[in-house]
Amino acid sequence: MTLRDRIVKGTGFLVLRNGLGLAVTIPGILIVTRLIGPGAYGQFAAALTVYNYLFNIAHLGIAVYLVRREGDLPAEEVDQAFSILLVSGFGFAFLAWLSTPLLAQVVTVQGFDTILRAFLFVMPLQVLYFVPLSLMERSLSYSTIARIELAGTVLNYGLAVALAAVGVKAWAPAIGWLANQVLVTLVVWRWVGRFPRLRFDRVLSRKILRYGISYSATVWLWQLRDLVNPIVVGRVLGAEGVGVVALAARIVEALAFVRNAVWRASLAGLPKLRDNMTALARAIRDGMVLQVLGGGVILVGGVMATELLLPPLFGNRWEATLIVLPFVALGALSVAAFTLPNSALLVVEKMKEVIAFQLAQIVLFGLTAALAVPRFGLLGYGMAEVAAIPSYLILLFFMRREIGVSARPLAALAYGSMAIALFANRIHPAVVAVVLLPFLLRRTRAMIADVVVPMFAPRRTGEERAAGNGDGV
Q1: How many angstroms separate the CA atoms of 367 and 380, rounded?
Q2: Do 122 and 48 contact (CB within 8 A), yes or no?
Q3: Which distant-in-sequence residues (6+ apart) come within 8 Å of 316 by Cβ?
Q4: pTM of the model as a whole
């Protein structure tokens, strides 16, 4: 099987896993939130958002180093990465624990700090999870990863729903999430079968940290976006406002599983194309179209279904979610369209260019939210999502200048069609027909046949591969 076939096949497993997980995630989210209410969900969401930001600092980007390191990965480097993560996991968890009173003054959602401290207990375990996960991703073992993560998702929402049904409020989703992290981490370590040794090599540590932190700087900067909800919305609209935005974001995140699968596959796949700029350019151009087409249709369908079903099932308590839902989905669609260009710029080590784009995104989004939420409420948060979209023009510019790739016209057509359809209920239901426009083009059908179908096609035998195009990327 060629490298391209392996990447496409692995991405297909992740898409399938997340698609199956959607059948668990969406009902689980909706049932839990209906039972506990916006205020309790806002407490959980605020704690999880802050924890995720701290967690992404704690793992120092070492997973990216392990996945992207060229050639074979020596056991000594695995041991060193494990040792660094062990120290950083316990160290950051301890510092974050001490800083909780200060964080409670910034995030004014009552009760979030208690849940945050509970999450901090699993930070060392969760940080170490990246070692075996990286080894699995290097070998493109996405089918195994998919099964493990699906099991964790089932445990998460099964436990959360059960606890919420007996009257537990904010702690119901919190305990479900904690159980998920413990299960997935233990199973992944068991699958790898080798527990690293402690090792401290100054030169090797510097090498790993230099690469990991340089990449992570872009992640830390980008994820400042997530803090706008607990900090800005929480200060103005309280826990209920945070809960409403968090529910919209969680629904959209579940629907955006195609984007997430492609991003994860790109971490292992794109570095292997670094020396073949023609193949890299093709992967970016085709990937942008497929991200928008595949992810956009699911987003549009999910938003329309939520707008139809949420009011009769949930009543007035959650109706405000519909105000921000299409705006959050539009933001996710934009991220999906530019996931591969962003990853490709990092692969060719254009860190400053990525940081310039992300700074523009954060400033536009954060400043607009700070000005608009106090005046327009939840609609102001949606306005911030729209205001941040022009920052992607910067990414397009760098993509053309540094890699020599321009977005296909089909990608722009697909993006515009999906964006309009997300707001169909606010314009006219007939505009949903625009979603079909990109699929009427011959090029679209050819791309689906060339890329999407192989994701789920049976694996070819050695004789079949020899008879086919064995020299592909």
Answers
A1: 11
A2: no
A3: none
A4: 0.80
Whether the Cβ atoms of residue 34 and residue 318 lie closer than 8 Å to each other: yes
CA 240, CA 233: separation in Å to the nearest integer?
9
Q: What is the average pLDDT across 166-187?
A: 93
Mapping DSSP onto H, E and C, the string for the chain reads CCHHHHHHHHHHHHHHHHHHHHHHHHHHHHHHHHHHHHHHHHHHHHHHHHHHHHHHHHCCCHHHHHHHCCCCCCHHHHHHHHHHHHHHHHHHHHHHHHHHHHHHHHCCCCCHHHHHHHHHCCHHHHHHCHHHHHHHHHCCCHHHHHHHHHHHHHHHHHHHHHHHHCCCCCHHHHHHHHHHHHHHHHHHHHHHCCCCCCCCCHHHHHHHHHHHHHHHHHHHHHHHHHHHHHHHHHHHHHHHHHHHHHHHHHHHHHHCHHHHHHHHHHHHHHHHHCCCHHHHHHHHHHHHHHHHHHHHHHHHHHHHHHHHHHHHHHHHHHCCHHHHHHHHHHHHHHHHHCHHHHHHHHHCCCHHHHHHHHHHHHHHHHHHHHHHHHHHCHHHHHHHHHHCHHHHHHHHHHHHHHHCCCCCHHHHHHHHHHHHHHCHHHHCHHHHHHHHCHHHCHHHHHHHHHHHHHHCCCCCCHHHHHHCCCCCC
* Distance between CA atoms of residues 413 and 53, nearest Å: 34
- Check pLDDT > 90 for residue 208: no
Would you kindly state where each structural domain of the chain is located, as residue ranges? 3-459
Confidence at residue 317, expressed as pLDDT on a 0 to 100 scale: 81
More confident site: 176 or 196: 176
